[in-house]
Amino acid sequence: MKDKFCSPLYLNKNKTIYGGAARNKRIARAGGLEQILNKVISSTFEEMNIDSDDLKYENNVIPIIRKQA
Asked: What pLDDT band is residue 38 in, cutting at 50, 70 and 90?
């Protein structure tokens, strides 16, 4: 896999990790996948001007209800 999360991560002068180990370390530093997803979802809703109170949770599916202009 080739993405920024797998690029070399320099921990100190003598230690560098690569690949899956680097990805796991970056995810852990960010608070885990759930925290990363929460940040992405929150910023997406902000950009779309959607209030989280307008969301209805049903069977782990969150429908997007567009506000009337």
From this structure: confident
In a domain? residue 47: yes
| Structural domain containing residue 41 | 4-54
- β-pair type (15-17, 9-12): antiparallel
49 in a structural domain: yes
pTM of this structure: 0.62
* Spatial distance between the Cα atoms of 34 and 40, rounded to a whole number of angstroms: 10
Mean pLDDT of 39-48: 83
Stated as kind and residue range, the H or E segment containing 42 is helix 33-47
**61: its two tokens:** 């599916």
